Amino acid sequence: MESDEINTSIANTGINKWYRRISSDEVFVKSPCVFTENPYHLRIGDVYEIHDLKSEEGSIRIGYVKLLWTYIRGYVIHFIAVDIQEGDLIHFSQRLGSDSIPCDFLICDLLYFDVESLSTKILRGLTDKDMELLEFDFSEK
């Protein structure tokens, strides 16, 4: 089967609103489990944080992986990566279009949830009018 045939068949099923290959090294994955600076875009070969929410210890385990490949089978997106610290090949998956089903993992850009960068992202999105409100002194009556 040619790659054009695969892309056409995926487009006909409606899956492309949740998953599509943008280029040979970039994919779009609309999932509540994906947190990236460019929303829902993942690059093959890049390093990401993985927040494992189903850890045996009952706590959230944070690891670092290099994304090797993604593929779709049925309505399930599969991620293949290598754990940078352990060197193990890992596989994790999520059903597409299942916003009501909790994620077992989060895949994030490095330092995506870093407090300092999060405040910078918020301030970057504010307008001049919003900034005036932030500088207003509410203590005087």
Distance between the ends: 73 Å
Work out the radius of gyration: 19 Å
Order of helices and strands: HEEEEEEEEEHH
- Number of E-state strands: 9
Integer count of domains: 1
Low-confidence stretches: 1-11
Derived structural class: alpha+beta
Across the major sheet, the strand order is 3-9-5-6-7-8
Q: What is the percentage of strand-forming residues?
A: 35-45%
The count of helical stretches stands at: 3
Biggest sheet architecture: 6 strands, mixed
Question: Per the principal axes of the C-alpha atoms, what is the gross shape?
Answer: globular
Mean pLDDT: 76
What do you see in this structure?
This protein is an alpha+beta fold and 141 residues long. It has one domain. It contains three helices and nine strands, in the order H-E-E-E-E-E-E-E-E-E-H-H. The strands form two sheets. The chain has a six-stranded mixed β-sheet, with no helix packed on it. Strands 1-2-4 form a three-stranded antiparallel β-sheet, with no helix packed on it. The longest helix has 11 residues. The N terminus is likely disordered.
Condensed summary:
The chain has 141 residues and is α+β, with helices and mostly antiparallel strands. The protein is built from three helices and nine strands, in the order αβββββββββαα.
Features of this protein?
six-stranded mixed β-sheet, disordered N terminus, three-stranded antiparallel β-sheet, alpha+beta, 141 residues, 9 strands
Write the layout of secondary structure elements.
Layout: H1 3-13, E1 19-23, E2 26-29, E3 34-35, E4 41-43, E5 47-52, E6 61-73, E7 76-83, E8 89-95, E9 105-108, H2 115-124, H3 128-135
Parallel strand pairs: 3-9
Antiparallel strand pairs: 1-2, 2-4, 5-6, 5-9, 6-7, 7-8
